[in-house]
Amino acid sequence: xxxxxxxxxxxxxxGVGSVQTADDxxxxxxxxxxxxxxxxTFLIKGTAVIPNPTKAMTCAQPYADLVNxxxxxxxxxxxxITLSPTRDSLSVTVEVDRxxxxxxxxxxxxxxxxxxxxxxxQGVTDAGG
Length: 129
Description:
Layout (H helix, E strand, L loop, with lengths): L1 H32 L5 H7 L7 H17 L5 E9 L5 E9 L13 E9 L10
Antiparallel strand pairs: 1-2, 2-3
């Protein structure tokens, strides 16, 4: 019983942190994908759009590769990037795999899902302050 409690505290705490990390990684992957706006559409129409989800996924993959190469004790997989109907925002889903130390005996697998939505904007719209 005590081992289960220790496992819950240890792995549970790491799990909460892993969910937050997964959300942060999804947001960063979305920002990276947002760098691949269609320049021709921007120049002609003045709006920032991404041509298709495949292009967004291709643009975000190098970020995922860097995260995985950093050796942070977890791996990140881009599972989905969905463009809005107007193609001016995208939703990103990632999966973070972080091994659990104690709770694997109780069926916990250490997989955490992160989500983020990124709106494409032109220039600085918020200085963050």
